[in-house]
Amino acid sequence: MNDVKTAVVTGAASGLGREIALDLARRGWRLVLPVRTSTRADELVAAAGRTGAPAPRVVECDLSDHAAVRRMCRALAGEGPLDLVVNNAAAGGGADTTVRETNAAGVELRMAVNAVTPHLIARDLSAALSPAGRIVQVGSMGQLPLDLRDLNFERGYDGIRAYCRSKVALVMSAIELARDGVPVNVVHPAREMPTPLVRESGLPVVSTLDDGTLAVLRVALDTELAGVRGAYFHRFDRAEPHEQALDARARRQVVDWIESRP
């Protein structure tokens, strides 16, 4: 069993994350599944078990709690090499997009979950990767520029705008982490898929979960992309993210803000 590969997949209890995790299980991968409460992963653990893959490890962690995320990463980093990390978990625009939500430390929820947490996980687990290991951040083509004077989204709040801004911050994070040698890329997997996030938003479904899974796993596993880091992919093609993500000064300001969050 020493040649069994291990993947950490966040947001795997449902939607796109579940399909990514099950695809990896069918390939014989061992799954590590961070979830808020272990019971959320019960159905996925059972489904993965039917593939014949090693039993998944379920890790309880509130991904909006950055202290808890740091503790989880320290624990996982000490348990042996990881071959893949897929940061798929995300907070959408919210059931009421006019309501500004925060985590317990006061960080706006979209930035907390969609930008800060993936950055921390990528940064803190990069040293635990196997030589060919990769990190994939699930992004979005929905990108809007950040107000660099209001990164915690305290003025003129709108949940959809906050979501789109957080996805630009995610690309900025990946570019900066890659400059430090972290093998991380960002991928927009597909247009609106039948996920809880899309259903909550009320948007029409235009893509399948298979569409998104294929795009994510291409960035995660394709040998042609070995060595590619700090890139943004629109599905299967390397693409340009929002122009603000290419501004080095803006990137540094945003990443400094991310790393200073409690």
From TrEMBL:
Gene Ontology molecular-function annotations: oxidoreductase activity
Name of the protein described by the UniProt record: 3-oxoacyl-ACP reductase
UniProt record similarity statement: Belongs to the short-chain dehydrogenases/reductases (SDR) family.
Pfam families noted in UniProt: adh_short
Organism placement in taxonomy: Bacteria, Bacillati, Actinomycetota, Actinomycetes, Kitasatosporales
Keywords noted in UniProt: Oxidoreductase
